[in-house]
């Protein structure tokens, strides 16, 4: 069993209303020994009504007493899911240097000032064109190597766009995806294996198995499992799939983080 979930939201994310302590208690209840709370920070988010910004002075006042309170049951990491956009490097570095973060997921939520969640991003584009634009942007953002430890939900663009087929094949984008993986590997960064795809009915993790295979072929090692939970019951969701898939591909280790540095631990 994988007992570390590295992608959990709390009521400090604008799209989640579950208090931090409730998420922690659910993780303990499910037998996790380590979690990273990774609330959303999306600077320069295009939809102003939903400004994904966290006040970390307020946040840490709640976080550190809870970390202390449950320290004998679970190790809780100060994490963040940071929305990457090429012009935000300095803002993100400043945030990460201002608080004692353990771990940062870098995610592409916004491309050319459009949230990929919004239909507007897909207007006038074929599926191939939209997915290509997405991966080219990820390639740009993957180079913001001071801004993240692992790249979040790498191929999740197939959740959106309303296309008849949601299938996104690695082979169709292999040139760009390989470039992304090489940037990540060469810079000592990693990938998150995000299990939310199963809850979107996609029957896959993000990234999908073929990309995890390619990552290993290219020498990639740093991986964490993340449920992307916004509800207590989703913590650790589909981690059996992750465990099974990793073993099957030949991975023997996952990464844990402390003060933004990875440590590898063996999966049984
Ligand atoms: Zn995300
Ligand atoms: Zn998330």
Automatic annotation (TrEMBL):
- Say if the entry is tagged with keyword Cytoplasm: no
Q: What's one Pfam family here?
A: PHP
InterPro entries this protein is in? Histidinol_P_phosphatase_HisJ, PHP_dom, Pol/His_phosphatase_N, Pol/histidinol_Pase-like
Query: What reaction does this catalyse?
Result: L-histidinol phosphate + H2O = L-histidinol + phosphate
Question: Which key words tag this protein in UniProt?
Answer: Amino-acid biosynthesis, Histidine biosynthesis, Hydrolase
Top enzyme category: hydrolase
Which domain of life does the UniProt lineage start with?
Answer: Bacteria
**Enzyme Commission number(s) of this protein:** 3.1.3.15
Q: What pathway does the UniProt record associate with this protein?
A: Amino-acid biosynthesis; L-histidine biosynthesis; L-histidine from 5-phospho-alpha-D-ribose 1-diphosphate: step 8/9
Xref: NCBIfam families: hisJ_fam
Similarity comment: family membership: Belongs to the PHP hydrolase family. HisK subfamily.
Record's protein name: Histidinol-phosphatase
- Which organism is this entry from? Acetoanaerobium pronyense
